[in-house]
Amino acid sequence: MKNDVHLDFNNIVVCSDLHLGEAKSVFHDAPEEFQRFANAIDAIGESSGQIDALVLAGDVLDLSLATYHEAFSDFLALMQAVEGKVKEVVYVPGNHDHHIWLASNEGNGVFAQGQHVPQGFAAKTRESYLEHALDALVSSGDTPLRVEYPNSIWCPKNGSSAIVIHHGHFLEDLYHLMSDLYKELLGLDASSLEDLEAINSGWIEFIWYSFGQCGRHGANGPIEQIYQRVSAGDTAQLKSILQRFYEYRLKKMVDTKLRSTLSALPNMLSEWVSKKLHEKIPEWVYSALESYIEEEMAKGRDHACNIRNCPLDEGLVKRSGDYLLNYVRPFYPEISARNMDFIFGHTHRPGIYRSDVGIGFYNCGAFHKGSTAFLFHCNSQGEIAEHLYAC
Q1: Taking all residues of the chain, what is their mean pLDDT, rounded to a whole number?
Q2: CA 299 – CA 307 distance, rounded (Å)
Q3: pTM for the whole thing?
Q4: How many other C-beta atoms lie within 10 A of the C-beta of residue 339?
Q5: What is the pLDDT of residue 302?
Q6: Beta strand pairing status for 151-156 and 5-9?
Q7: Which fold is adopted by the domain 5-175+309-390?
Q8: What dihedral do alpha carbons 313, 382, 2, 326 form, nearest 10°?
Q9: What band does 220 get if pLDDT is binned at 50, 70 and 90?
Q10: Cis omega before residue 118 (within 30°)?
Q11: Best label site of 132, 151, 207, 327, fewest CB within 10 Å?
């Protein structure tokens, strides 16, 4: 049995989207908030008994919108605050901290092996690491930190269910875009849990890590400013960027294709068509992108992505159910006979949905200033109770 399946637990607490280091996080420049968080954990432990694990379900360190120093300082403060209140902390990375998984996975599965690295490719999922990329931050404490991805599975001591904990990014189309293209364009199978991570990993890193940590241009710099403006629906700067990208990178390539396609036309007509297309192509691309952003914003979301701030309704439940059906049940034989409950975050909107067939779906929300989040307590009978945390 893999170490990412935990049997016979008595009490765990689950939360997500702390976004440590980022300006919107309730913990940013607020050292007293770490003690308040620890007190909330303490209160749950006092009424239920020792907490076996605090499970952090992704977007804990914000390596996209914060510097290393900001994120690491806040994470160290968090670990110090919960010291002695939980037996261990289990970290399940999301999209903003995906690099924690990549670095831990490659460090353990590839580079630590040296000349003894096994043939073939190292596993990208279903590993559980007590030695990981955050070792230097937690080495002075007594509370073990474990890193698992993309799921952490918990089976209660006296219950028959399995609690599946996942950040939630793979519920959103953007985060499996590369594997979708792989299937659609090449007609090849990419349906396993390993495929999901292996094919999309570089794409997630490119968007949510490489941009954020590209020096003075990334976190707290112009890239973050563009991100915040587009997220708020302001696309004017994006239009300018697309126009320049077309002029400097795509126009010559399009010219080459047009000359071949329009070669049968008279020169004057060919030049006129070519000129009009060069005017229209950037407009068409921008118009399509702007329409998409407007549609998403019109759905009441605070962000131009397809499940951010989305309520835990039947649509999001279907996405969650599909994830369990396609990427959990087939690849975790240890729990295939159990009913499953699903705890996730990512949308920044807390909620609870209990289905007619007995499956519970639980969203943690986000620890953003002015918002609310849930701490979910799961006991030895498999019962899940929410504890509201006002930010």
Answers
A1: 87
A2: 10
A3: 0.85
A4: 14
A5: 43
A6: parallel
A7: Purple Acid Phosphatase; chain A, domain 2 (3.60.21)
A8: -30
A9: low
A10: no
A11: 207
For residue 110, the model assigns a pLDDT of 86
Element holding 302 (H helix, E strand): none
Which residue in this structure is represented by tokens 């729990």?
Answer: 335
- Alpha-carbon distances of 34 from 31, 50, 110, 259, rounded to whole Å: 6, 20, 35, 63
Each domain of the chain, given as residue ranges in start order, spans: 5-175+309-390, 234-298
β strands within the chain, DSSP E:
5-9, 11-15, 51-56, 86-91, 127-129, 145-149, 151-156, 161-166, 339-344, 351-354, 360-363, 372-379, 384-390
Q: Which residues contact 21 (CB under 8 A, 6 or more apart)?
A: 28, 61, 62, 65, 66, 67, 70, 71, 72, 73, 74, 75
| Single-letter amino acid code for the residue at 356 | D
Altogether, the residues listed in the chain come to a count of 391
Contact (CB, 8 A) for 379 and 11: yes
Helix pair angle (193-205, 98-109), 10° resolution = 120
Cα gap 390→36, rounded to integer Å: 11
CA distances from 217 to 204, 240, 281 (A): 19, 18, 29
Is the C-alpha dihedral spanning 55, 170, 99, 218 positive or negative?
Answer: negative
Distance CA 371, CA 386 (A): 16
